[in-house]
Structure formats: structure tokens, C-alpha cells
């Protein structure tokens, strides 16, 4: 790890200003960032620790939405009665991230800002059509995830909270890579006021919506309808854990399992 | 660069100046000589370095000491009584043969304590899921699960 300066701020505005001023980086749970720094894949000169900023914490119901602060830990989302009642699929998704120790440190905001191609939360955010709030603006999930580890966030822009519209029903099914427990492929299926949404993580360079599955499920919301869809392997990830063809095959299989879980 | 740090470790207040890059596990092992917290992988995979931060099990190889400033840390050294009486969870690991080489054991025991705090009557499946982040390379998990069940029951008494 290279040397850095570590700072705290007493408000989100001050933290953002400090990041902008120093060209530094936000530190949330550190579960991705510390590992990257140890490997010298990340070498921020300044870390601004967001821990303790109460503006970024908490889970609340706001009309037909569930609003979760960026610094809310995975374990808190998994255990929250409000989340279990309104969007049980989101609580289950959080409960399935990594292991207990990772869930006790890792945060919603950190997961989204990092946009790991195999991360779980991006699938929930895109699948539910959530809105990402930052210190500057609001960003629709459809516009937030830009590519491999890339998001719409600008320099010094901080995620403050995420607003998840409560769906009619939703389920997330992950085929976990057995060593890391990240998603080899994960599929989030939601029936929402705006129609069926299907978000896929782990399979491509970044989370994406599977239009063919959405169309098929809008016609008939059954596991068989999902299973009948063929997803082309073009552009999907290939690595020692699975070929692009294998991942392409898993997408409708997992979508079908998600639909079956909702029956 | 060095930064000032104060926190509580096993009930004792600790103040030190540390390099900002110091991981919590390095602080515990090197600065405080609490070598019961082990490093199996250093990449947040194995759970040998698990300690409690304000009651939450975390992997201390993947957390900066600076991140836990002001927190209450519990390591394996903080569990037994002053007279050496084992904590019921430690006693259960001994009783149930929940260890062979013992390398993973401190992390297992602390992970188990986080579990018991949330699920005092966890069933076998819940225990297996809760210890997903703790690897054992020799015992084979059967007796570890039994130990956690036995320890949880002893703690409930
Ligand atoms: C062993 C292991 C297993 C894991 N398994 C899974 C898994 O199965 N599924 C999964 O989804 N994830 C998994 N993860 C990743 C985990 O969920 C991380 O917690 C998460 O990716 C990052 O969150 P963090 O709070 O730790 O962020 P950090 O590591 O602190 O930060 C990550 C990035 O986000 C930026 N950032 C943080 N907060 C904000 C904010 N509010 N606004 C703007 N930028 C911000 C940081 O600057 C940094 O660039 C795993 C991690 C480990 C170590
Ligand atoms: S040493 Fe920390 S998880 Fe292995
Ligand atoms: S007892 Fe040897 S690694 Fe678990």
C-alpha cells in the first residue's frame, strides 16, 4: 500500500469539498477499496472516511419507496424490518453478499460506486428502477451504471442515498462463484408499476437489463416463458470460472428460478 | 506519516501513533502483541483474522486501524476470565474437538459470538451460513458446527 492522508469531515458537503480539493477518494466500508490499495491497484493520495456521517445512514419508508442511506451496511439492510416488509428481495440480496464479516463493513454506496461487474446491489438497483441520490443531483438507475467499474458519478460526487420504489414482487437469484461468493451470474426480476424489469449482473462488463426476458415475462410471467428465452453470448464475460456461453445459458435459467420463487 | 489512534481493546483503553497504512490486524499483532488474531490469507477470504468491532465480526486484515478509531475491539485474548476460565464458546470448541491445528479457531470463535448475539438458538444451517467467511483447513467443520451449538447453549444458561 502506498502512503496516503486520511481525513474525516463533519458533513457530506465538507467531505465532497475535501475530495474535490485533494483529488482524493471516499472511504466507505473499505471492503473493496482497502483490498485494491493493498494490491496497489488504487493509490489515492487522500482518503476521506465517510463513517460517522449521519446524513448517509438509515433506512426509511417514504410513500411508495424505501430510502436507504449510502453508508448503510449490507448486514443492516439484510436485517431491517422495513426492508423485509417492503422489498424482501432486497433484504435477501444483501444477506447473500459475501460473508457475515464483509456484510458488517460493506455499504450500499460503496457497492454502487465501485460497480464491480459481479456485484449484487447493482442488479437490485437496476432491477427495481431505483434512483441514486448524490450531493449534486438524482440519477436514474438506467443512467447510473456505465461500464466496467464505471458509473455516472463525477469527480467529488458522493452517493447520499438510494430510493427504491416498492415493486409488486421481486426476486434475486445468484449463482455464486464458490470461492468469492460474488455473482458468476445474478438475475434480479421485478414486477413493477412500470412493467417487468430484469437486471443481470456477473455476466457482462457491467450490470445490464435483459430486454428479451423482460418482453417474454411481460407477455406471460412464468418460469417456462423465461426459460424459453435465448441470450446471445456475444460481449459476455469469459474467465476460468465460466465461458461466455455458460453465462449466457445461466441468465434465463436464473430468471426462471426467480420467477418460480415468486409463484 | 503517522496518525494518532485511540480505541478500546478487550476492555482496555489504548492510545498509539501508527502509520496510516496500518491494518487493524497489524496493529493488534505488532503494536499490541496480541498474536491470537491470525493472518491466513491477508486477502479477506479466510476469516482467521476475525475480531469484533463494537460487537460486529469483521476481517481485521481488510480494515485500517484508522477506520475503527474510538471503537471497542474484542480479540480472542479478551474472552477468557481473569483466572483463565475459558469463555463458554472456547470451552465448547475444546470439548467438541472443534479444532485440530487451531489456526482458524480464534476467527471461528469470534464469528460464532457475533452469530449467537443475533441468533441465540441458531440451527445447523444458520451456523453453517454464518461461518461461510471462516475457513478451516483441517477439522472438517462437523465438530465446529457442533461446538458452536454447544457453546450457544452454554451461553444461554
Ligand atoms: C470476501 C469478499 C466477498 C464479497 N462478496 C460480494 C458479493 O457476493 N456480492 C457483492 O455485491 N459484493 C461482494 N463484495 C464486495 C462488498 O460488497 C463491498 O462491500 C462493496 O463492493 C464495497 O463497499 P464498501 O462500503 O466496502 O466500499 P469501499 O471499499 O470503501 O469503496 C469502494 C469504492 O466506492 C467509493 N465510494 C464509497 N462510498 C461512496 C459514496 N457514498 N459515494 C461515492 N463513492 C463512494 C470509494 O471511493 C471506492 O472507490 C465482497 C467483498 C469481499 C472482501
Ligand atoms: S487473514 Fe483476514 S481473511 Fe484471511
Ligand atoms: S483447526 Fe486447523 S485450520 Fe481449522
Secondary-structure topology with pairs:
The complex is a heterodimer of chains A (263) and B (157).
Chain A: E1 5-8, H1 12-22, E2 25-27, H2 33-38, E3 46-49, E4 59-62, E5 65-69, H3 74-79, H4 81-86, H5 88-95, H6 100-103, H7 108-114, H8 121-127, E6 131-134, E7 138-140, H9 141-144, E8 145-147, E9 150-151, E10 159-165, E11 169-176, E12 183-192, E13 195-201, E14 208-209, H10 211-219, H11 223-227, H12 244-262
Parallel strand pairs in A: 1-3, 2-3
Antiparallel strand pairs in A: 4-5, 5-10, 6-7, 6-10, 8-9, 11-12, 12-13, 13-14
Chain B: E1 2-9, E2 12-19, H1 24-31, E3 50-53, E4 56-59, E5 72-74, H2 88-95, H3 105-118, H4 124-130, H5 142-156
Parallel strand pairs in B: 1-5
Antiparallel strand pairs in B: 1-2, 3-4, 3-5
Helix pairs in contact in B: 2-5
The complex binds flavin-adenine dinucleotide (FAD) and FE2/S2 (inorganic) cluster (2 copies).
One FE2/S2 (inorganic) cluster (FES) binds at residues 99-105, 136-139 of chain B.
